[in-house]
Amino acid sequence: MLIRDFMAREPVCLQPGDTLHQAAKIFSKYEIDGAPVVDESGKLVGIFTKTHIMRAIARGMPVETPVCQLMRRQVYTILEDDVPENAWEMALKHGIGRLPVVNRQNRLVGMMTRTRLVQAFEQKYKNIISFLNEVLNCALSGICAVDGKGMVVIFNRSAARITGLSVEQVVGRHVEEVIPQSGLLKVLQTGRASYGQKIVLHGATVIANQAPVIYEDRIIGAVSLFHDVSEVEALSQQLETVKRMAQELDTIINASSEGIALFDQAGRVLKLNRTYEQVEGVNGEEIQGLGAKELVQKGYLSFLAVLAALEKKGAASVIEHLRTGREVLTTATPIVDEQSGNIRRIVVNCRDLTELAELRRRLEEERARYHAELESLRWEARGAERLVAESSSMRDVLAVAERVAPFDSNVLILGESGTGKDLLARFIHHRSTRAAGPFIAVDCAAIPENLLESELFGYTAGAFTGAGRQGKPGLIEMADGGTLFLNEIGELSPGLQAKLLTVIQDKQVRRLGGVKSCPVNFRLIAATNRDLEQMVARGTFRRDLFYRINVIPIRIPPLRERSEDIIPLVHHFLHRFNKKFNVFRRLAPETLELLQHYSWPGNVRELENVMERLVVISVDEVIGPDSLPEQIRRTALSVLVKKGCPEPALLINLYRQLGSTRKVAAALGVNQSTVVRWLKKHGYNLSASRS
Predict the structure, then answer these.
(1) 295 inside domain
(2) Which of residues 353, 376, 398 is at a domain's end?
(3) d(CA 660, CA 558)
(4) Digit-coded pLDDT (tens) for 175-206
(5) The pTM is what?
C-alpha cells in the first residue's frame, strides 16, 4: 500500500498572488485551517494557514496583501509512491497534521491527513490478519490458540477437521469448555512448553507441541500445534510388525552355519548372509545388484550353481575350490511362480566342506598362542632376577628406569647388541601402571620388511594375496592397555617410520586394507644399537620420529665398561644352567680370572652363551681354563700380561700348548722378552722344558 492509495486528491490550493481576503474566504468556505500554495505549473511553493492571517491582522497589514509575502516556504512533503509508515513518522517528528503529497516533479497531487493515515494502517493490518488467517488455514497441522484468559482466539480448518468441531463452535469460548484435553490451560498457568505429547482430542490421537505466548515478559496466551497420527499409528504398528519379522528372519539367516544367498530372476545378487561373505571372501553390499555371470568371471566360483540353475530352470549343485582356499558344496534352488511358471527368486546354500579342518587349525593356533603367552609370562616373572647390577653405572641405569617406569613417557634404550635392552624394557613395564597389561615385543630387525608392516598394523580380510579371510589384528593393537617394545627401531624403512609416527602422535591405528582407524592406548619403549642422531643427519631416520621416541633416553653401558658385573653375571648364569640341566659345576679361580679380563664384545648375551657351553660340555665338576674357548683364553691372558699380573698356571699352560715363547708372545700380542721374564719370575725352567 502506498500514499497515493489513501491521499485526498485535488486539494484546495492557493496561488501566490491570492490576497489575505481571498484566502480567508476559501478557508471559511471549505472549513480548513490551511492550504498549499502552488504556482502556475502546479509546483508546490509554500504553505499558508490561518496563523498567517492572524499574524497579518495583528500587524495591521491590509487585506489586499498577497499570501506569498506571508506563506511558509519551507514545506515538508511526501512522495505519492512512498509508504504510510514514512508519512506517519514525518508527521510525528515535525508536529504536522497534514502533509502535501507531490510527484517526482514536485507537483502537488494530493494531501495526506492523520485521519487518512489511520485508515491506511487499519486497512493494512486487516490485510495482514486476513493473510495470516489464510496461512493458518493452509497448514496441515491443527492450530489452536488462546488468550491470557483461556478464551480460544484461533482455531484453523485443520484443527476443525481433526477434532470434528467447527470454528464457530470453538472460537470465543473457553478452551476447557470445548477442548478440555488440549493442555493449554496448564501451559498458561506454568509458562512451560511441552513437545511431542500424545493426546486424544475428541477421539483423534494427535501429537501436540504446546508453548506459551510471551510479550514483554508477560504470558498473554498459549498455542498448540497438533497433527493427527491415528492412521499413521496404525500403519506404524503394522510396519513395526513387518520390520520385527524381517529382523527375526535376517537374524535366523545370519545365524546359519551355512552360507545363504538370494538372487533375483535374472541372477542378480539381492542378499548374502555373513557366513556366505566369509566363505567366499566378499562383501555382500559391494556386489549387490551384480549378476552371477559377472561374479564368476571375477573369480567368485561359488555362484556357478546360480548359472546352472538358470540354465536348467531347476535345482543345481556344484563343488568348487574357492580362491579363499576353501572347498564348498553350493546348491542353487529356484523359487517358481505357480501361475506363470517363471523363476522369481533363486536361493543358494553354500556348505563349507573345510570347516572341520579350519576348526582344527584354529585350535592349534590358539594352543600355540596360549603356550607363547605362558612362556612370556614365565620369562617376565624371571625378568627381575636376570638384571644383575653390581657396577655403579648399571645401578644408575636401573635407578633411572625405576623413576620413569610409573609415567607413560616414551623411552629410548640405547646400547650395543647383547647388553640386555629387552630386559630393561620388561623391567620398566613391570614397574609401570600398565604391568597388568600386555607386553608386546617386536624385533624390527628379525622380521622381513615385506611382512613387518602387516605384523605391526594388522590387516583386514582380503587386504592382499594370502591374507586371512577374517583379517588379523596387528601387534600395535595387541599392545592396547600395555607396553609396545620396538627393538632395533633403527632398522625400520622410511615408509614404516612415517606410519609409526602417525600412530604415536594420534594413538590410532588402521589395518592394511581398512578404511577406519581404531584407538590404541599403549606406552612406547624403543631400543637400538645404532646411532640414531647420525642416521637423522644422514637422512635415513626421520627427525620428527626421533624426537618423538627420544623423550627419555637410557643408555646401557657395554659389559667391557662395567667389569664389576662380569663375575656376578657369571655366577648368575652358572646357577641357572646348573638348575636347568640338573648338574653341579664350579669354576676354577683361573677360569674366573680369564672371564673377568675378557672384553666381551658380544656383551651379556655372549657371556650367557659361553656359560651354557661350559656347563654342558664340561666333564669335571670344576671347570678349568682349558674348557674356555681359545679366543677368550688368549685375549684375556694378553690383558693380564699387559697389566703385569697374569696367573702363572695360565701362562705356563699356554707355553706348554704352543711350545715356544715366541708363539706365546705372538698369541698374546706382547714382546717375547716379557713372556720369558714372567716365566722365569714364576720359577719355570725354560731349558729343562726344551730338553
Answers:
(1) yes
(2) 353
(3) 35
(4) 888 888 888 888 888 888 888 888 887 777 88
(5) 0.46
